[in-house]
Amino acid sequence: MARLGLGEAWSCLYANDFDAVKAATYGANHDGAEAHFRRGDVWAVMPDDLPGRADLAWASSPCQDFSLAGARAGLTGGRSSAFFGFWRLVEALNSQGRAPRAIVIENVVGLLTSHGGEDFEALCAALAGQGYRFGALEVDASAFTPQSRPRVFVIATLEAAGARTGRCGFHSKAVVQAHDRLPEALKASWIWWDLPTPPARNTDLAALLEDDDALVWKPQADTARLLSQMTPLHRARLDGPGRTVGAVYRRTRAGTPQAEVRTDGLAGCLRTARGGSSRQTIVVAQGGGVRSRLLTPREGARLMGLPDSYVLPAGSTAAFHVIGDGVAVPVVRWLAAHLLEPLLRDSFTPLAAE
Q1: Is 345 helix (H, G, I), strand (E, B) or coil?
Q2: What residues does 293 pair with on adjacent strands?
């Protein structure tokens, strides 16, 4: 999804993922993937496997160890240690004089506070140790697509001459506090990236849903059970006039199942099924009645900014496994158009002719 967001002006030298379903999905959506995609553990990738010198390296390591909902194992966690498998490659490439000119590290916002900020400091120290200057942005996909999906993007560069800098709306309180916790030596390498505010989003959740008549709705008894699990506050959100569309997550709080609905035009953050995460339910209240059904994979893909031509895995579980672990395509496009491409273009120095 990061590659889709970067756009057709970019070419991919090398791509890697451990997961078989994601690998197959990548191959189904990118011509020529067999020439540059390698499925397997990033720790098994060797520096000589990587061709040439990249303008950009993008790392979206597994987020569970940084997530507020997870065990908060941080960078020492088994899954997020994939980052260090990536980073040893950057170090090796740097020693060969072909380190990526820029790096993007994307993860959940919990990266900023994991282990009291120590994990973020370790990340910044790793970047600075290889000569990179860096900064972080917190971007919620809801600015572009009707899904609440805040993520942190750490952007690092070896060539800051073309950097557009200044404080902006994507420097959230969490980003500012993460910066302030850093030692002075690392603050000296910090860049306050200036990313412009996008135009107001003009679509809501209802606009991305399939036609009501094309879908199978849950039996009314199931919907009644769902409504019974809502607090009076959440139930009242479905009592308005006209047609009300909401997205529901089912959770267990203090041992009691609860259904929480939002009717602000946004879906909740899409997730995978790992760890017992529930799939979102769509509810439609109209004419005094309420119907419910599960969010479809295609609707989930649209919430990630994927076109309807994007080939999804067969089966809902596999499809949401891919979608829920992805990065929102329009967020990547905004970063590329307004930060990465100007940075790399304006700081580019042609090689002297020999």
Answers
A1: helix
A2: 282
Using a pLDDT cut of 70, give the percent of the chain over it: 90
| Cβ burial 196-209 (10 Å sphere, 16+ → b, else e) | eeeeeeeeebeebb
3-state secondary structure of 59: strand
Identify the DSSP state of 263: -
Place of tokens 């008894």: 221
Q: Which two tokens stand for residue 8?
A: 């057709």
Query: What does the radius of gyration of the chain's CA atoms come to, in whole angstroms?
Result: 22
Pairing state between β 56-59 and 102-107: parallel
Closest CA to 171 of 134, 127, 139: 139
Are the CB atoms for 108 and 66 separated by under 8 Å?
yes
**pLDDT value of residue 68:** 44
* Short-list 103, 1, 124, CA closest to 55: 103
- Residue 26 CB neighbours (<10 A): 20
Higher-confidence residue of 254 and 1: namely: 1
Question: Reduced to 3 DSSP states, what percent helix, strand and coil does the chain have, rounded to the nearest 5?
Answer: 40, 20, 40
Confidence at 351, pLDDT banded by 50, 70, 90: very low
What end-to-end distance do the CA atoms of the chain give, in Å? 39
- 197-204: average pLDDT: 96
- 3-class DSSP assignment, residue 85: helix
Query: Which tokens belong to 270?
Result: 């899409």
Report residue 278's pLDDT band, with 50, 70 and 90 as the boundaries.
low
Residue with tokens 């060969």: 96
- Cβ–Cβ contacts within 10 Å for residue 317, how many? 12
More confident residue, 341 or 77: 341
**Domains in the chain, start-ordered, CATH in brackets?**
2-200+321-346 (3.40.50.150), 211-295 (no CATH)
Helix (H/G/I), strand (E/B), else coil: 43:
helix
The answer to whether residues 328 and 305 touch, using CB atoms and an 8 Å cutoff, is yes
